[in-house]
Structure to design on (251 residues):
């Protein structure tokens, strides 16, 4: 369907025993937008991402990614999306070029396509001088670029980035967000999680997660206008304090 959301969730929930990691979240992500999951570590962002990527079955609720049902079509989702995990999912004993070639094979690309994609990505991500360097020897910022390249090698329409800038320096973070804008500019949907409040400003829309729930959703500018606050940091603190007070009152 032409107007179908790139990512849709309705009441999506994941429990581990008595612990609820994701608590009934609902959202729609439009094709081609940069959508952010903003929240502190432990808010449930990664668990939600893993469900959307078909890596973790939900306890209840529904969701569709690229038109595929996460309950019954997880395999199709994995073939359609790109996914960059927090740990970057790279093989430390392979070189930069070998990692790209390996993931090209994983995604079923032909030998010619892998060779073309490898050279193209080395150029686009300024990794040509590092092509024969073992991945374990790369600085964190270079590993970040490499992880992004392998998640894009099969030209997915939707890419999930889970805390992609965690641990890197501020300059690398800014440069990485320039790449994200380029990706979105090519028509791809970018779904990114972050706990950096300033990065929320870079998203077209975002949801704020707290204790497994979405407590607010909207464009950064609209949220600042709604709450009369100058930064997403102020809004986040206000919403978390309000949520805690409401829970305390209900108790």
């Amino acid at each position: 369907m032409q107007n179908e959301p790139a990512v849709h969730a309705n009441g999506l929930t994941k429990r581990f025993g008595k612990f609820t990691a994701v608590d009934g979240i609902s959202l729609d992500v439009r094709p081609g937008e940069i959508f952010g999951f903003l929240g502190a570590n432990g808010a449930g962002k990664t668990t939600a991402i893993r469900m959307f990527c078909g890596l973790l079955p939900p306890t209840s609720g529904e969701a569709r990614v690229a038109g595929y049902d996460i309950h019954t079509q997880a395999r199709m989702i994995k073939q359609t999306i790109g996914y960059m995990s927090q740990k970057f999912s790279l093989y430390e004993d392979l070189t930069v070029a070998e990692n790209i070639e390996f993931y090209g094979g994983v995604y079923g690309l032909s030998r010619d396509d892998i060779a073309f994609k490898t050279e193209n990505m080395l150029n686009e991500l300024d990794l040509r001088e590092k092509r024969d360097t073992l991945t374990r020897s790369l600085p964190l910022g270079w590993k970040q670029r490499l992880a992004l390249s392998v998640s894009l090698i099969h030209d997915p329409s939707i890419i999930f980035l889970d805390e992609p800038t965690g641990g890197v320096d501020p300059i690398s973070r800014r440069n990485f967000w320039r790449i994200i804008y380029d990706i979105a500019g090519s028509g791809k949907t970018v779904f990114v999680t972050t706990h950096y409040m300033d990065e929320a400003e870079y998203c077209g829309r975002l949801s704020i997660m707290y204790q497994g729930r979405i407590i607010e959703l909207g464009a950064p500018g609209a949220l600042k206008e709604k709450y009369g606050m100058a930064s997403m940091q102020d809004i986040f603190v206000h919403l978390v304090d309000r949520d805690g007070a409401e829970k305390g009152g209900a108790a």
Remarks:
- The chain has a mean pLDDT of 90.
- The radius of gyration is 19 Å.
